[in-house]
């Protein structure tokens, strides 16, 4: 088992149980305690967990994220491609629907187009900037999913507000990701936001992934939507032809902006 897969399984276990011992993780992953301790030490140095005597636990607060992961930086990256993807996604939405938009910069571009359209919609989002954008349309009912706001982010995260997802019938979730890989599907670097995205995805009848070409083939720390659960991928013209072919061979509908 490669170290990246071990790290994902360690985080998945900690998310479910909050804490774990070196012994139980080593047995679950079938690796030596020496290897497991090295993994935990490395993950602690990246701010993903906190080492304890004999094990590890999830941490309540994390160090400031690297500048490349801050929303202000991501919002300006590949903006033209994100805008083109957002336009196609916005045009897919029909009046009367209930949809979810995540807190990604691509969904923000979608919201900027959607707000100009004359549609009656209910929109749930964990994106603060997305919610502020959408409130300008009087035909929209905008519901902000509550949670924790961290430094460098424009989205709420955690499971505090997920109860609302059980009370509303959601047609489609529009979501982006830090990356998409063929085995794991949509992945992200923030395990706390990943848990919220899992809840949002499970409440929706349909999943539409908004992925600019730089995200296809890029892996991150944790998966939140498996490939077989994605209905449509919208990408841009920079996507490699071999990637488009492979995605379609997997049975995914692919739209190129």
Computed CA radius of gyration, to the nearest angstrom:
19 Å
* pLDDT < 50 stretches: 61-68
- Sheet with the most strands? 7 strands, parallel
**What is the helical fraction, as a range of percent?**
25-40%
How far is the first residue's CA from the last residue's CA?
37 Å
The helix-strand sequence is: HEHHEEHHEHEHEEEEEEHEEEHE
**SSE-based structural type:** alpha/beta
Total strands: the figure is 15
Shape category:
globular
Strand content: 15-25%
Order of the strands making up the biggest sheet: 6-5-4-9-12-14-15
- Report the average pLDDT across residues: 88
The helix count comes to: 9
Structure description:
With 257 residues, the chain is α/β, with parallel strands linked by helices. The chain is 37% helix and 23% strand. It has helices at 3-17, 22-29, 33-45, 71-76, 79-92, 105-114, 128-134, 191-203, 241-249; strands spanning 19-21, 50-52, 55-57, 98-101, 121-125, 140-144, 148-149, 156-157, 170-175, 179-181, 185-188, 204-210, 222-225, 232-235, 253-256. Strands 6-5-4-9-12-14-15 form a seven-stranded parallel sheet, sandwiched between helices. A hairpin with a 6-residue loop joins strand 7 and strand 8. The longest helix is centred in the first third of the chain and has 15 residues, at 3-17. The radius of gyration is 19 Å and the shape is globular. It starts with a helix and ends with a strand. Residues 61-68 have low confidence and may be disordered.
């Amino acid at each position: 088992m490669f170290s990246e897969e071990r790290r994902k399984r360690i985080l998945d276990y900690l998310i479910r149980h909050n804490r774990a011992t070196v012994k139980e993780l080593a047995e679950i992953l079938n690796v030596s305690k020496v290897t497991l301790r090295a993994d935990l030490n490395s993950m602690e140095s990246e701010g993903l967990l906190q080492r304890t005597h004999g094990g590890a636990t999830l941490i309540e607060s994390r160090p400031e994220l690297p500048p490349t992961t801050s929303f202000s930086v991501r919002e300006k990256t590949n903006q033209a491609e994100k805008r083109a993807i957002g336009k196609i996604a916005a045009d897919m939405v029909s009046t009367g629907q209930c949809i979810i938009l995540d807190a990604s910069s691509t969904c923000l571009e979608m919201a900027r187009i959607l707000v100009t359209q004359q549609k009656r919609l209910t929109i749930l989002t964990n994106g603060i900037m997305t919610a502020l954008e959408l409130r300008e349309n009087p035909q929209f009912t905008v519901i902000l999913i509550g949670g924790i706001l961290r430094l460098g982010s424009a989205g709420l995260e955690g499971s505090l507000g997920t109860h609302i997802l059980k009370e509303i019938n959601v047609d489609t979730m529009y979501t982006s990701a830090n990356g998409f890989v063929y085995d794991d599907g949509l992945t992200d670097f923030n395990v706390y936001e990943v848990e919220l995205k899992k809840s949002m995805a499970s409440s929706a009848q349909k999943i539409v992934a908004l992925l600019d070409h730089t995200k296809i083939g890029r892996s991150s720390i944790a998966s939140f939507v498996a490939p077989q659960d994605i209905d449509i991928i919208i990408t841009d013209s920079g996507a490699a032809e071999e990637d488009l072919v492979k995605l379609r061979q997997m049975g995914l509908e692919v739209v190129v902006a």
